[in-house]
């Protein structure tokens, strides 16, 4: 009885939280102003041979109606902005992957809720078929499955964001080289920045071009836009590049040599990271080979050892 009561209370509390989250809430004034000032997102990813990994839009099963995550996402995001933590790391991962925070929260909640209800449903089905199980089993299983379902999208997002940040760092080094070459050709700094992003259609170049274009439309400096983008996607190399550009714009420092040196530093860092990963993979392969050889030797020596022990 105690386990059943705890299970019912947990399910009821979860449904209460879900109903509170899905009720249309009036967003705060600061949230509305932040959304008005935030740059608008494009309608979809730009297609191209080098556009990089982007999240493909899912097909809507009900024509004329928004998807479930799109309906719940804004409400959950408002609820998190008003009462929840800021979660800067998660927001940076979503920004670098160019994913909607509200849709991600709705997906995580939905997966966790489905897995939460799976354990009691399985327990009821087993009880009906005559398999006796304690009432605490579905409670523990429901909590474990709900935690797994809620954390699994975040873990997958973290792995994808790590890969995207590495690509972004590589593109920042190429971007610094292109800006230095455009400056050597006689362009001004703002024109060199915008022209350098028009060379490729890679997704990182598109993000840089979008930030610089919005900076021109909003009459802000390009280096401020690059610094804000580096802060949003948590790429330190882009923030450092924006600091170098700010120093050149305010103090009149020689920018071309600084950009070339920074690009060379980024290339050396990328090369060292690649060599380190190659060394780690070589070591893992060596360990796997040693384990395989050890297992083979045990397989060969086991009959002799077994017969020797049987004689003794």
UniProtKB/TrEMBL annotation:
<feature type="transmembrane region" description="Helical">
    <location>
        <begin position="103"/>
        <end position="124"/>
    </location>
</feature>
<keyword id="KW-0472">Membrane</keyword>
<keyword id="KW-1133">Transmembrane helix</keyword>
<feature type="region of interest" description="Disordered">
    <location>
        <begin position="37"/>
        <end position="64"/>
    </location>
</feature>
<feature type="transmembrane region" description="Helical">
    <location>
        <begin position="136"/>
        <end position="157"/>
    </location>
</feature>
<protein>
    <submittedName>
        <fullName>Type II secretion system protein</fullName>
    </submittedName>
</protein>
<keyword id="KW-0812">Transmembrane</keyword>
<feature type="transmembrane region" description="Helical">
    <location>
        <begin position="290"/>
        <end position="310"/>
    </location>
</feature>
<feature type="transmembrane region" description="Helical">
    <location>
        <begin position="6"/>
        <end position="25"/>
    </location>
</feature>
